[in-house]
TrEMBL record:
<dbReference type="GO" id="GO:0050300">
    <property type="term" value="F:aminoglycoside 6-kinase activity"/>
</dbReference>
<dbReference type="InterPro" id="IPR006748">
    <property type="entry name" value="NH2Glyco/OHUrea_AB-resist_kin"/>
</dbReference>
<dbReference type="GO" id="GO:0019748">
    <property type="term" value="P:secondary metabolic process"/>
</dbReference>
<dbReference type="Pfam" id="PF04655">
    <property type="entry name" value="APH_6_hur"/>
</dbReference>
<keyword id="KW-0808">Transferase</keyword>
<protein>
    <submittedName>
        <fullName>Streptomycin 6-kinase</fullName>
        <ecNumber>2.7.1.72</ecNumber>
    </submittedName>
</protein>
<keyword id="KW-0418">Kinase</keyword>
<dbReference type="InterPro" id="IPR011009">
    <property type="entry name" value="Kinase-like_dom_sf"/>
</dbReference>
């Protein structure tokens, strides 16, 4: 899979391959620069590199080379991790970094938009899941429906901002990777900061309440609207997990949704 690109782009392998469900990645050296060769396996990953090219290195990893299936990306070589930072007492600072990075991604640009998925279509799995499972998913779907019918501050979204999709690129600072080519209200992009089950403290008592004013201040969002997006996204994320049979991570999302709903009712 990698060999044609190693020859075409004159790349030297520089580490072990990383295999995921959606892509195969290989650390390489390109013109003396550390890079990451990414061969995408699904359509969203393939088209995600179009969004990276549109951002052109402003808040996101640069794309050095690309074709229909593969992209040669700037590689993160810095030692810091937002996930580790959040787990080791720096949760507030990690949230601020996420907000500052997202602000760069959401800034208007003069170049024509890439091929994007409208946010209402991105949510297409939530209503069927709510009908099938009921419970808090029903409330999540109702709130999502109201938000999607009245979207504000439309922009190109990352679509999957979380602590591991913003990485330390050394002298270039914190940059985003792996966008999902979504277009819609910018508030959506901050919801996973509160939901990401890879960060075990997302369900800890008081965590959402501490992070909400930080994110709303840094991102210039209204707390009620942010809470609604958290509920909507938690439902969508749970629906995705349930479709994979992952009840553990779905329950994490349900817990966050219940916390956010309780805040909306106060």
């Amino acid at each position: 899979m990698f060999e044609p690109y190693l020859k075409r782009w004159s790349l030297a392998p520089d580490g072990e391959a990383i295999i995921t469900r959606s892509s195969h990645l290989l650390p390489v050296i390109w013109r003396g620069v550390p890079a990451m060769l990414k061969v995408a396996l699904d359509i969203d990953e393939k088209l995600g590199s179009q969004v990276l090219r549109w951002w052109d290195g402003d808040g996101a990893a640069q794309v050095f080379e690309h074709d229909t299936d593969a992209a040669l990306l700037e590689r993160a070589t810095g030692p810091r991790s937002l996930l580790t930072m959040a787990m080791e007492g720096g949760d507030n600072e990690a949230s601020r970094i996420i907000c500052h990075t997202a602000a760069k991604l959401h800034a208007p640009r003069a170049t024509p938009l890439p091929d994007l998925v409208p946010l209402d279509r991105w949510f297409r799995e939530l209503e069927p899941a709510a009908r099938a499972h009921g419970g808090v998913l029903t409330t999540c779907a109702e709130i999502a429906g109201h938000l999607l019918a009245d979207q504000r501050d439309l922009t190109v979204l990352h679509g999957d901002i979380h602590h591991e999709n913003i990485m330390d690129f050394g002298p270039r600072g914190w940059l985003a990777i792996d966008p999902k080519r979504v277009h819609g209200e910018r508030g959506y992009d901050f919801a996973n900061t509160f939901c990401n089950p890879e960060l075990p403290i997302v369900t800890a008592p008081g965590r959402l309440q501490r992070q909400l004013p930080i994110v709303c201040t840094e991102a210039r969002l209204k707390p009620k609207r942010m809470l609604q997006w958290i509920v909507a996204y938690a439902g969508l994320s749970a629906a995705w997990f349930l479709s994979d049979g992952d009840t553990k991570n779905a329950e994490s999302d349900f817990t966050v949704a219940r916390i956010a709903l309780a805040e909306l009712r106060t």
